[in-house]
Amino acid sequence: MKDNSQKTQNDIGQLGNVDQIREILFGSQTRELNKRFEKIENDIKRSLEDIKNRLEQNQKDFTLRLDNEVELLSKKIKNLTIQHQEEMTDIRDNELKQEKRIQNSIELLNDELSAKHEQLYKEQLENKNTLQEEMNNLKEELFIMMELKLQELNDLKLSRDDAAEIMMETAMRLKGNQLEKQIISVQNN
């Protein structure tokens, strides 16, 4: 009976030794890889947050500019309407001439409004294309960075099981960030 309990204690001691040996052999590599993955994850989060902030800021800027233009045109139209009413009360006998003048002013305003609208539309399209290009560039940089990091991992000559575990952990972290959903959402806007 005493031999069995002593054998069990020796087996437990040997298991502790195996864990210590594993820590000595692979502990620093595992910690280094964990640090690298955390850095990559933080870089990705920071990049996504930066893109999101830029998109939000561009949208706010565009909305503000559009509101200002609409307000300016609204004031112009309001001023023209007031001017029209004053002139109609002051000069009743010159009604046809005045009407023609106002009609020309409205046409000019419509032309100006159309030109402003077209200009704002083109700017918005250019902003969208620029942002799309930036997103594609960032996406490409991200994939290049991931390939480089993966190459570095391959250069460390890890065992297949360790590499598979690390890749699975990375995939799970990336999936948690919903990178693709955010990119698709931005592309649709």
Secondary structure topology:
Layout: H1 2-90, H2 95-155, H3 160-177, H4 179-188
Task: Give a brief rundown of this model.
This protein is an all-alpha fold and 189 residues long.
3D architecture notes:
- With 189 residues, this protein is mainly α.
- The chain has one domain (2-188).
- 94% of the residues lie in helices and 0% in strands.
- It is built from four helices and no strands.
- The chain has helices at 2-90, 95-155, 160-177, 179-188.
- Helix 1 (2-90) packs antiparallel against helix 2 (95-155).
- The radius of gyration is 34 Å and the shape is rod-shaped.
- The model has no long low-confidence stretch (mean pLDDT 79).
Any descriptors?
4 helices; 189 residues; mainly alpha
**Structural category:** mainly alpha
The string of secondary-structure elements, in order, is HHHH
Question: How much helix is in the residues?
Answer: over 70%
Count of domains: 1
Q: Cα-atom Rg, whole angstroms?
A: 34 Å
Q: Which parts are unreliable, with pLDDT below 50 for 5 consecutive residues or more?
A: none
Report the end-to-end length measured between terminal Cα atoms.
75 Å
